[in-house]
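1st attempt posting a full record on here, be nice pls
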Amino acid sequence: MKTDNKIALLIDCDNVSSKSIDGVINELAKYGVVNIRRAYGNWKSPQLIGWEEKLHPYAIIPIQQFAYTTGKNATDAAMIIDAMDILYSQQVDAFALMTSDSDFTPLVTRILSNGLKVYGFGEKKTPSPFVDACSQFIYTENLVEVDVSAAATKTDKAQSKDLKKSRIELRKDTKLVKLLRTAVEQSVEDDGWAHLGQVGQYISNNSSFSPVNYGYKKLSDIVHTSDLFKIEMRKNNSEMYISAK
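the predicted structure (as C-alpha cells):
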C-alpha cells in the first residue's frame, strides 16, 4: 500500500451527508494524500448548510453549480467533467467519489480503465451497480463518530454497538462468506495455508469489500471474529496464515 499516492476527492453534496467527512478523510489517509478536494452543489441552497461548515476545516474547495433546469442534475455533469479533466492531466494516482448516486457508475468504470483505483463513499441507499464498480466502497454511516460517553443517549450507544457485526451476523452474510472462502482458495500455498496479505490482495482486486462496512478496522479482525478459518501466526507472530476448517 503506497501512502504517497495522490488522491482526488470529489463530493456530490446533493447526495451525501457532511457528517462523515472526517471519517472519509481519515480512511483515505491509509492510501495516500488527498491533494485535490472539491465539493459540488448549489451553495445558495439551504440544504448545503452542513457542508458549508466543513469547507474551511477540511480545505475543501466549493464548486458552485446552479440548477439551470428543474429535474436535471447539473451537479453530476460538472463533477464528471472535472473528473475527466483531472484524469487526463495525470495529476493523481486514484480518485475518491463521495456520492450515493449510481449515475456515476460509468465514470468509475472509465477511471478504472486507465488503471487508477476508485474509492467510493456513500450512504446505505447507494444502488449496488455503483457500489460494486468501485475498487473499494464504504458506507458513510460507518464513518460517523458516535458518542459513547456516559452522557450519550441509549440510541447513540445502541448505534455504536450495532456497527460491529457479531460472529453470527458475519457467518450469515453469504456474500461475505463466499468472498472470504474464494479468496483463501485462490491464495492457498502448497502447504494448504494462505497468507492473509495475499488473501487481502485478492479481495481488493476482485470486489469493493471494506472491513469498515462490518464495523471492523482490519480484515484480520473479521477473520478472527467469524471463526470460519484455522489461524496460524508465523515469523514471531508478525504474519497471519489462514486455512479452511
